[in-house]
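Saturday, quiet lab. Running sequence design on the structure tokens for the scaffold JK sent over.
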């Protein structure tokens, strides 16, 4: 049994990130500036989207996107319930109603037919999630949204490096067509991190300009442009905005992380393959199923479903063996406030609820060794067999 605790996740940060932050600190410009501009450029290139707007979190990104779309009371937004609560919170905080679509039990991806069935004349947007780093099935989701004349907001919080049918998350379906709005997260558990941070990508020039206003008080030019050489200090505000601009200190970390992301994701994929090999014959554990369309998985999370024993007992047995785990996610339609306000209840979404009872996210981060994965697999085998320590 190992003495040290193996956490669910640990950010892959090294001396290059430390040096980038130090350089930014020494430069005399620490809030949004050249490093933010660089990170936005990297995202435009990586996704193929013409606009990238850096923000303080994916949640902040979602807030300004829903605001810029004018979503408010009386409107509905369709999304899976199997997602992080921040999405639902942001919909509700705008005064709108979240409506939930079921997922596929095996892949945990939102079912396009279920999402399409939730679209009504009140629906103002759909938010599919690229769950755990595999892409949602965007083509039929886009087709349904196009028929309704509403935008698709890709929740790409798990999807830096994810590819759907040859197109990166946040990218255009074909070079000649506009794509979706997409939101990425740089929280420390994610595939790249800036401590906290996020990025919105989009296609429409006016929409991007609106996001930039909402990100920073409603002021058209950020402080870097006003106080830098050749800038003018004047400004006007036509609409009040929020304070969601990413700082250069954070963006400096993101720039280094994006240089490394292909290698980091390749290591995640190796670890995932090792989990599949190590757990393939363990009874009472359902392994993640692959989505049935062309894709590249960024392996943000490795989520098993415990079916052969009590889930809390399983988590406790792993904790006894010094292994940390996560729950991604308790279904949103069963959160107390969502039930109370919107009347959602057990039985609404059978696959989400079945999955929700069994899901456990296993440790997965690039700094893990092969031996760490083997240790977790052995700990799981012992746990399901009821081996006492
Ligand atoms: C699916 C999903 N959406 C949105 C978010 C919010 O990201 P952030 O923490 O950057 O606000 C998360 C974060 O865990 C997430 O998992």
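Result came back. Writing it out in full:
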């Amino acid at each position: 049994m190992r003495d040290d605790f193996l956490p669910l996740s640990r950010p892959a940060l090294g001396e290059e990130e430390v040096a980038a932050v130090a350089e930014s600190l020494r430069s005399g410009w620490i809030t949004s500036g050249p490093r933010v501009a660089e990170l936005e450029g990297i995202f435009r290139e990586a996704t193929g989207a013409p606009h990238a707007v850096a923000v303080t979190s994916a949640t902040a990104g979602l807030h300004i996107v829903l605001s810029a779309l004018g979503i408010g009371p009386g409107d509905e937004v369709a999304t899976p319930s199997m997602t992080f609560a921040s999405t639902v919170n942001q919909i509700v905080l705008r005064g709108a109603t979240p409506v939930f679509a079921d997922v596929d039990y095996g892949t945990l991806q939102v079912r396009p037919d279920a999402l399409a069935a939730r679209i009504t004349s009140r629906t103002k947007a759909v938010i599919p999630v690229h769950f755990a780093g595999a892409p949602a099935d965007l083509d039929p989701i886009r087709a349904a949204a196009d028929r309704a004349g509403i935008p698709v907001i890709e929740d790409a919080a798990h999807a830096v490096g994810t590819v759907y049918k040859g197109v990166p998350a946040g990218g255009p379906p074909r070079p000649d067509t506009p794509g979706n709005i997409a939101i990425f997260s740089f929280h420390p558990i994610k595939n790249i991190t800036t401590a906290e941070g996020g990025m919105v990508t989009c296609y429409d020039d006016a929409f991007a300009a609106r996001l930039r206003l909402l990100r920073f008080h409603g002021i058209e030019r950020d402080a870097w442009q006003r106080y830098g050489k050749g800038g003018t200090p004047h400004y006007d505000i036509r609409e009040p905005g929020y304070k969601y601009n990413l700082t250069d200190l954070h963006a400096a970390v993101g720039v280094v992380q994006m240089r490394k992301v292909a290698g980091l994701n390749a290591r995640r994929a190796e670890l995932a393959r090792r989990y599949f090999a190590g757990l393939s014959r363990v009874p009472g554990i359902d392994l993640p199923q692959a989505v049935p369309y062309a894709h590249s998985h960024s392996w943000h999370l490795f989520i098993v479903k415990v079916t052969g024993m009590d889930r809390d007992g399983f988590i406790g047995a792993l904790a006894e063996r010094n292994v940390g785990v996560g729950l991604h996610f308790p279904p949103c339609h069963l959160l107390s406030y969502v039930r109370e306000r919107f009347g959602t209840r057990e039985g609404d979404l059978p696959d989400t609820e079945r999955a929700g009872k069994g899901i456990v996210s296993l440790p997965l981060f690039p700094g893990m060794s092969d031996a760490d994965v083997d240790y977790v697999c052995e700990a799981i085998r012992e746990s399901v067999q009821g081996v006492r320590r």
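Notes for JK: The chain has a mean pLDDT of 95. The pocket of pyridoxal-5'-phosphate is lined by residues 57-59, 83-84, 86-87, 129, 155, 157-158, 185, 187, 198 (CB under 6 Å). Ask whether to fix the surface positions before the next round.
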